[in-house]
């Protein structure tokens, strides 16, 4: 299952990271989370993922794939994805992005420090 989802993301997330930098990529991932989440619950549930998956190009995933995606990213076992779980899952699904993540983190921290000093 993961390889099916990986093929959808691995070409795009590293490109986004290169163009947007660490902060920009995290911001875009947060926007993606907002598109997929259940507005009342503030998390991505199976129903909200199924309803909104086409917005992120995931319309070809069947119910089992969607459940597997939720299960793979659900670290606290509540059956849903919070924003942090979603962002971590997106990084994990992109091997190229995982290799870049230490550099993106360093870049984001440096930007925070620059912003803090101004």
From TrEMBL:
Organism: Ilex paraguariensis
PROSITE patterns associated with the record: EF_HAND_1, EF_HAND_2
Matching InterPro entries: EF-hand-dom_pair, EF_Hand_1_Ca_BS, EF_hand_dom, KIC/PBP1/KRP1
Keywords linked to the UniProt accession: Calcium
Name the record gives this protein: EF-hand domain-containing protein
Top-rank lineage group of the source organism: Eukaryota
Endoplasmic reticulum in keyword set: no
Matches recorded under Pfam families: EF-hand_8
Domain named EF-hand: residues: 61-96
